[in-house]
Please model this.
Amino acid sequence: MKQLKYPIYILFISFFSVACSNLLEEDPQTFYNEDQVFSSEEGLESAINGLYSQVFSGAYYGSAWHGLLMPVSGKFFSSQNANLDANSLNTTPSNVWLVRMWPQMYAAVNTANVIINNLENTESEFENRDIILGQAYFVRAWVYFDLVRLFGGVPLRTLPTTASDLDLPRASKEEVYALIIEDFERSKALLPAPAAYRPERPTPFTASAFLAKVYMTMAGEDGGDPALWQKAYEEAQSVIQNGPYALTPTFAELFEPGNENTVESIFEIQYGNTGGIRNSDMIRFYTPANSTFAPANTVTFGRVRPNKEVFDAHVERYPSDPRIDATFIYDSYEKIGGGTQKVYPMNTTGNNGFAAIRKWLDPSFNGITTTRNFIVFRYADLLLMMAEIENEINGPDAAYTYVNQVLARARDIDGDGISDVEQPADWSGLSQEEFRTAILQERQFELLAEGHAWFDTRRRGYEHFLEDVVEPHNNHPELDLSKEFIYPISIKNMLLPIPLIEISGNQMISPADQNPGY
Model:
């Protein structure tokens, strides 16, 4: 008989104390009765804050998202020994991050379900009722969008979990996408206009931007419906024409500490001072150990690094691109106490045989908390999406205007609207197929380490994955087999495995339901 391997998430507002460990682990300490929570406007705000805390926690976007999805994307190296299976693109169903992230994602879904169930099925005259409900639909759609892209069809939970309905079969991918679209549409109708509520929270434009990405993903998949490109176009165009977003004057300023929620931000994960409770391991993962990028006596790992071929591709395509210096720490960096540490390309072996990521540094990091937000979606991403969508519908002629806006901003070092360097030069003269290939690479140059690599390397099918990930990595002349792995050529890498805790704990999912190759 199967044993239940994960907790039942019925109550949802909790404060977490975190074990002193390299991995964040949640330990629920305090719960509030649902009647209390939904009896006041303040209670509704507490409910939605609890929902966001589920998504932002270490078992999801706070740590697992970076620790698992960066290396398993095939674009990053991780020095974490417990995560070598993901680093070698042989992720096991018991991967150290996977078994944390799956239940945390469903904890967030359940919290959203509790809010939706209470607000949809009871009369509420609170002024913030629609705003809270719209956010709950938005977050549920967002989490299921992550789930379906990572795992394919998953159990579809739309009601608060009880002991009687713990076991659910995998829904089809089409059923999951149908709910995602329905939820984003509901959120779009309920969310407030920009500046009408809290500026860091989603608006109807945020929902439309996510819907554009949903339709674009569905259209581009193997066997996808080409008609969905038009739906993606309509959602993206509505945001571009009517939304409040714009590119920041320079690329580098996007990632300056303290420069959060810029005009380019469509949606960010909000981190702040949480006292002694760790709120994210993002800074520790990307900041090189013993470097002057963080205060002395602050523990950082620098364990997640871009692969050699990733750094080389950017330098070879645009040697003078200012985004290179804003994205990477390369050649060498200063160490605490003096001296320098050589890294790629000056060093090609071991953990320092890789460049590091500059985007997520925090000079005030205390080893526990960070106030650096993580950008989930920004306007440059939407412009590159629009370029890709336009190319698929009509070819490249009208698509250049969108990508060239991003390239022009990249060339502007001082923010005066004038190009200071020649690269990256505007695009022209490409065929539709050439544009299709180039735009995916451009997304890597612009959005590296922002959580898109897994999705961009998979959503165009297996052949693209081989050409974009496996072959450049396996054929790199500086491949260090003492630390790095030859990537397998395997269809299984198009999805992650369903975690063992789900297969062993869910009576309606058996080993036969596992994703192909696992």
